[in-house]
Amino acid sequence: MLKNFILKNNYNDSVVLMTAANGVRNEFSNKNVSAVMATPQNMELLESLNLLSDEGKKAVSADLIFAIDADNAETAEKMFEAFQKHLSAKASGKDSGKSEDSSFDTALSGDAALVLMSIPGRYVAREAARALGAGKNVMVFSDNVPLEEELRLKKLALEKKLLFMGPDCGTCIINGKGLGFANVIKPGNIGIVGASGSGIQELTCAIDKMGQGMSQVIGVGGRDIKSAVGGLSMLAAMDLLESDRNTDIIIIVSKPPDADVADKLISKAKSGRKKYVINFLTMELKDFGNIQFASNLEEAAVRVCRLLDKNAALPVSSRALPKLKDKYLRALYAGGTLCYEALYLLKDIEIFSNTPINKDLALKDVFKSVKNSLLDMGEDDFTRGYPHPMMDFTLRKQRIVQEAEDPDTGVILLDCTLGWGCHDDPAGELAEAIAEAKKINPALVFITPITGSSGDPQGFDAQRKKLEDAGALVYHTNRQAVEAARDILFSK
């Protein structure tokens, strides 16, 4: 039974709505639940999910729609009541225990040096310009910001000697405080400028495991490395770290930039006073002068740590691995950069993906794996109506079971990310799905790299134990996990 409940003139943040909707999904074991503001884009989303009723079509942008497909009217009403309770808990601050400024103007008049924005993309240009005008640095978590607006805001920030981080900037650590998806990392003298959220997290956690720490970690958003933007925020962040007395070594990390932007970044690093490690993921370049290059994230972490301690090394997991013949690898990533890195590390193997390096290997149907398949489940196809998979495991858990039902699947690789902004118990969520999958296919091998530190709120050791108790092979880095999959499936 399709039912749309409309709450008139009731604005709520999209993350709040998706979290409340997920609470109802879990409580009623019903995946056909969505809660959105009735914007044109969201109405299209509900239509595509077959969750928009004739009543729902009457809603306007200021209205909230709670859309469900329930067994009957009584269950629908109970689900709506549960949703309102989840929403009320969020609104009353029970989940955070923190006060909020009564208005944006009040916040801008304070002495905070940075504004973090997570609002619909169409409002970012106006509100970010206000923040920059008030003398604030800006981090924009939101996506769907027009490219021309991003360029205008970054130029405005430069004029005012401020930093604009984003849009779609998922990770920063500023003066020791994690913003967005961020881990609890030791303080130190290494600075990072990155256009890759999960890549930054993997780097910082690997560095932390080797006993070193961070001064500042500055994300800039993935489009900064495109020719149209010209690396404006990356170059500005490099200037900041060059002048920072607490930073001795600078890491630059991103997927491959456009050629002209790569040249600008390398040229600036070459003329800098500090040492650099540059990881343009998949690009294999030769060291020169004050610059070392790394082609993968683990290599970048090790190289920077060995500039400080020549014996620096990551912990390794030494174990005998099974050998499987005529079976396939299925990887279900929440971190997009980790998926991209895995594709690079397995470039000699035919791997299909929704984000392939070789476009000839694009999955025709992202909801059905083919042979060896690696999925970035943070892409739009998997996040419409759902929070990011680092926060909500609903679709990943369903896909784990789906892959287990394929008798040709031999190994399932799952990244597990800890830290602020992520799920409170990611290992517990994965362990539950692993147990269900092993009932279907007991011979399945699960491999899980954990991106996390000993200081993360979820507890690194406790999370590792949950995964190991579920039967997963756990590794400290994505590269280690990918090489284990290679050894099991592809070694001769």
Characterise this structure.
- The chain has helices at residues 14-28, 40-48, 73-91, 104-108, 121-133, 147-159, 197-209, 232-242, 259-270, 297-306, 336-345, 380-383, 394-404, 426-440, 460-469, 478-489; strands spanning 2-7, 33-37, 64-69, 114-117, 137-140, 164-165, 171-174, 177-180, 187-194, 214-219, 249-254, 275-280, 291-293, 328-333, 352-353, 373-376, 409-414, 416-417, 445-451, 473-475.
- It folds into 4 domains: 2-91; 101-168, Rossmann fold, CATH 3.40.50; 173-314, Succinyl-CoA synthetase domains (Rossmann fold), CATH 3.40.50; 328-489, 3-Layer(aba) Sandwich (Rossmann fold), CATH 3.40.50.261.
- The model is unreliable at 94-99 (pLDDT under 50).
- Helix content is 37%, strand content 19%.
- By secondary structure, it is an alpha/beta fold.
- Helix 14 links the parallel strand 18 (416-417) and strand 19.
- Helix 5 packs parallel to helix 6 (147-159) and helix 11 packs across helix 16 (478-489).
- Strands 14, 15, 16, 17, 18, 19 and 20 form a 7-stranded parallel sheet that branches.
- It is globular, with a radius of gyration of 23 Å.
- The protein contains 16 helices and 20 strands.
